[in-house]
Amino acid sequence: MSRTRNTRASRLATAGVAVTSATLLAAALSPAAHADTRPTRATAIENAAQALVQYAGTLGLTSTESTSVRDVVVDRNGTQHVRYDRTYRKLPVLGGDFVVHLKPNGSYRSADRATRGTISLASIVPNISAPKAADLAVNALRAANLGDALKQVQAKPQLVVDALHGTPKLAWRTNAVGKDSLGNPVARTVLTDARTGAQIDAWDSIETATGDGQSLYSGTVPLQTTQSGSTYNLTDPTRGNTFTGDAANKTDLCIFGICISRAPNTVFTDADNHWGTGATSDRASAAVDAQYGTNETWDYYKNVHGRNGIAGDGKGSYNRVHYGSSYNNAFWDDSCFCMTYGDGDGTTFGPLVALDVAGHEMTHGVTSKTAALTYSGESGGLNEATSDILGTLVEWYANNSSDPGDYLIGEKIVRSGFGKTALRYMDQPSKDGNSADYWSSSVGNLDVHYSSGVANHFAYLLAEGSGAKTVNGVSYNSPTYNGSTVTGIGRDKLGAIWYRALTVYMTSSTNYAGARTATLNAAKDLYGAGSTEYNAVAAAWSAVNVN
User: Fold this and answer.
1) Which of 88, 137, 290, 295 is the most buried (most CB within 10 A)?
2) Structural contact between residues 160 and 94, judged by C-beta atoms closer than 8 angstroms
3) Has 449 been annotated as catalytic?
4) Which residues pair with 121 in a beta bridge?
5) 65, 361, 384, 464: which one is catalytic?
6) Catalytic residue among 449, 457, 464, 533
7) Which one-letter DSSP state was computed for residue 503?
8) Are the CB atoms for 452 and 381 separated by under 8 Å?
9) Closest Cα partner for 295 from 336, 349, 353?
10) DSSP-derived 3-state class of residue 467
11) What are the phi and psi torsion angles at 167 (to 5°)?
12) Stated pTM of the model
């Protein structure tokens, strides 16, 4: 597999096509250097720490606040970007995150902040007790699940400072979890005013070796496994020891890392290193898809964007398949750093282990380790769109003839009972009956899977352009809000721009206007202000009414 990938990269390079976003950065930001003299991560953190002291007022920092480094990006030319979280009187600050940008010599250049202003609270003693906040969150969870007879419901409040919703205030952030009537997990995060008990916001907190395997959706695929005596384990030592296990159609119930009950996760084993049969009757077939999806997502981020694993630290995640009873969902969970896949109900969805689903869900992990876009409002739509966009690019990157690249989300998992041919359509999102094609002042009130349509539409237009066309055998027809004609710049440049915007410029509170600014800044870094690419970004946003 590595030989095939290297050959593909060499072929692209010979054709003069930029292979990675790191290559683009080198071309755009660096002279012809013969040695990498970039500052180290530690040096960048030290430089940023000095900037925090010098520019505390600009960043809204006071003596009552502390900061911690979340992520560091160092460009090839030495420019440094250090991302921080902050606390106020030891309480986490929602919307307190910011990115400090430093010049190659380490001096302060600018900053992007999730929220403006300073934080000053008269007291950090709540009027609403923790048990009361927990009860309110449980009620919100029940209401969100339409009165389903939830079981094993638990809630754990955490006192925070909410700076995301106007004037900073003391709040309870409560994760409420339970199981539905089928035993599948449900979870909701509820933000409650700690003074009045009013609900501020709420959102779902489950974001929606060398052998070979016969998968359900992607044909026969290569797999790296680990041999133990005469048995092979579905564990990949070349990608951070990622592995796939069987959840035995059970579920777990965990809150803030404390598990009341946990599904098994028995690592798949095989005697001959040929996994699955391509049929759902063989439980290993879904495991093949899941492991393959992890592999392609890992390779996409590493080979295209220079990111070593989901968290950028070289550590692998793991997969659980056959989770729950007829469970129509798949989700990434930061608390276990793992991907979980349901089998679907067979009528609406099949097993949810398709390649673009894997890329989508694991990209939630990348987002949480970088911009940490809040999962509600316009930020939540951008969070979902980021997973759709980069998950789609994972599918294109894999170049699998059984599941060729397209701009349809989840087309492999839907069944006739769903009534549509895909979960979402990037060329014209409204074709799903719910998603927004264009921005409006009310788009943030939509479910995040539907408000994501604005950014998905932007991404399609930026890559492929407007109007009717056939791409890779699929027909598309992408309209524009302003009647303009948009000329696409290709998928590689879309991915480079979006990834840099996500990891360098976006913050937890970025909305659509902020995403326009962030992607323009990324395009300027990569290709130059006023370049064809920069102008295409501006035109694509205007075409979806983000001006």
Assistant:
1) 290
2) yes
3) yes
4) none
5) 361
6) 449
7) I
8) yes
9) 353
10) strand
11) -60, 130
12) 0.83
